[in-house]
Amino acid sequence: MKKTLIVLTVISLLSGTITKAQPRQNAELFAADLSNADYPAGIWTFSEGILTATEDQCIWTKVDYENFVLDLDFKTAEGTNSGVIVYCSDTKNWIPNSVEIQIADDYAKQWAESPKTWQCGAIFGHLAPVKSMVKKPGEWNHMTVSCQGKQIKVEINGELVSDMNMALWTSAKTNPDGSEIPEWLSTPFAQLPTSGKIGLQGKHAGAPIYFKNLVIKDL
Question: What global pTM score does this model have?
């Protein structure tokens, strides 16, 4: 009987080792041929390592991510308003069902005069960056987005600009500091799942956005 239990235990352990998903280490978020992406045909293209879009349409990972660090470089144009989207549970209706890390040309008048939660490095509509670290249009920036459970941290060019505990955002109308949340962001962050697709926003507000060196690592 003892021998049988030992054999069953070993088989069980080996089975668990075989079936357990291994963490993805320093993988490209999107392949050069975009074979691992969901996106409208003809909108997003990779050229010489640079990913960009011709319209305001998002590109999405085909798989869900939970607990990860995403590193990428981005470059704005004059008036750029784009974003990195995480924890998306519904790509067809992503705006109230995800978290968007804002990318914007903070030097442009329309964004410089917008609410701080609309500026580069913000958790859009919810948490303003502690400082603006984005470079002028035409210069490359480095962004690191760390997501672990309900904790989201955003670094731009080596500086921590946003640090959020989603559990504190229990209302869909007001942020913890009392400021208003845009009405189209109708799901309280405390209720959002902490696993989902990762996406990039395309040519929004008429200005392009450029990405390169998109690397993801599971935690």
Answer: 0.88
